[in-house]
């Protein structure tokens, strides 16, 4: 039985909305993440997919302890990471690392690549004592497929894909167990995306890493993910294995997302049913009552406005949060 390396339970992050010129008053909350639970298993990749603004980056930031949660727990190696302070929090920071979306803004342009990748050693000298740092950085450059001789170059001397490799090397420096990848290939050309995905795949096998892999689009995470969680307005609406999500999705939102994924094979393209979502994503300040997806759902009925569907096993399959969950294949 695989064991969870990270167990997230009831995670909530609300941002206060303030108004007033002289006296700022809280007039509401952005419910960016609103009760998210999942297990990340050792060595697996959990894809997290959803439209812009559904709370993916907030989830990542909270798990990195860059934002404090409003409520909930996340257990890593038997400890709730939100209770850690001081030296224990520093140790956690070694074990959970992040790779960000934009390789152009996430690297300091005034630092050499060697300093960027070696910076984590300043905070964690126990991983690499001063004398061994340059060797370690060269090793990391080599591991991510960059020339170790380029250690003294600056970020602008690298292409987008190479910069993302620098970001990955930096994330690997402290030998983490978990890496949260927040749309690491979204800003890259399609041809480069596959190379970076392959690199992440190889590194996972080599170092036994577990990934939370965030993306906009179901097609991006398919080949890397063991399981996929679909988010809508701060909640997970469906979670299952790659086969369950892509071949037998049960939630209308997942079905709609899948029906919009580009299909390469023209003979299949004509057979698939395209589900067009009506309207925009509602505001996370005042989400719809009951099921948050109901304002855009073609299956909605009265109960959907009054009763929130919980995330549990439905229709004999996997976890989904819909009163009328029904597995069906969208792409033939
Ligand atoms: N620091 C903040 N203060 C207030 N609201 C915030 C803050 N950070 C995020 N939000 C809001 O929380 C919601 C979720 O944002 P988040 O960035 O997590 O979404 P996302 O799924 O990562 O979107 P994208 O796909 O565009 O990156 C949005 O409505 C956003 O405006
Ligand atoms: S609970 Fe109702 S509104 Fe929500 S997804 Fe299911 S059918 Fe649609
Ligand atoms: Mg984001």
From TrEMBL:
Keywords: ATP-binding, Nucleotide-binding, Transport. InterPro entries: AAA+_ATPase, ABC_transp_ATP-bind, ABC_transporter-like_ATP-bd, ABC_transporter-like_CS, Oligopep_ABC_C, P-loop_NTPase. One of its GO terms (biological process) is peptide transport. PROSITE patterns: ABC_TRANSPORTER_1, ABC_TRANSPORTER_2. GO terms for molecular function: ATP binding; ATP hydrolysis activity. Residues 17-258 form the ABC transporter domain. It comes from the Bacteria. Belongs to the ABC transporter superfamily. This is Oligopeptide transport system ATP-binding protein. It comes from Amycolatopsis xylanica.
């Amino acid at each position: 039985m695989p064991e969870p390396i990270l167990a997230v339970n009831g995670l909530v992050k609300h941002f206060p909305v303030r108004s007033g010129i002289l006296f700022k008053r809280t007039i509401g909350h952005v419910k960016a993440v609103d009760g998210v639970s999942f297990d990340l298993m050792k060595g697996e990749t959990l894809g997290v997919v959803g439209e812009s603004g559904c709370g993916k980056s907030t989830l990542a930031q909270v798990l990195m302890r860059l934002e404090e949660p409003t409520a909930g727990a996340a257990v890593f190696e038997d400890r709730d990471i939100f209770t850690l302070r001081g030296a224990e929090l520093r140790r956690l920071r070694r074990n959970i690392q992040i790779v960000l979306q934009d390789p152009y803004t996430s690297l300091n342009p005034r630092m050499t690549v060697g300093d960027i990748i070696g910076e984590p050693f300043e905070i964690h000298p126990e991983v690499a004592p001063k004398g061994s740092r340059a060797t370690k950085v060269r090793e990391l450059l080599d591991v991510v497929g960059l020339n170790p001789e380029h250690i003294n170059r600056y970020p602008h001397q690298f292409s987008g894909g190479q910069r993302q490799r620098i970001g990955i090397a930096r994330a690997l420096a402290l030998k983490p167990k978990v890496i949260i990848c927040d749309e690491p290939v979204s800003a890259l050309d399609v041809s480069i995306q596959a190379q970076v995905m392959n690199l992440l795949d190889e590194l996972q096998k080599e170092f036994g890493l577990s990934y939370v892999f965030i993306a906009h689009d179901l097609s991006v995470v398919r080949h890397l993910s063991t399981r996929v969680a679909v988010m809508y307005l701060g909640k997970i609406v469906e979670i299952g294995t790659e086969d369950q999500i892509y071949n037998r999705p049960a939630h209308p939102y997942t079905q709609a997302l899948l029906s919009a994924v580009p299909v390469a094979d023209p003979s299949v393209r004509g057979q698939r049913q395209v589900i067009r979502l009506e309207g925009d994503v509602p505001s996370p300040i005042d989400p719809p009552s009951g099921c948050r997806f109901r304002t855009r759902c073609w299956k909605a009925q009265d109960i959907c406005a009054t009763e929130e569907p919980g995330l549990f096993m439905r229709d004999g399959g996997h976890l989904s949060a819909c009163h009328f969950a029904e597995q069906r294949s969208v792409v033939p």
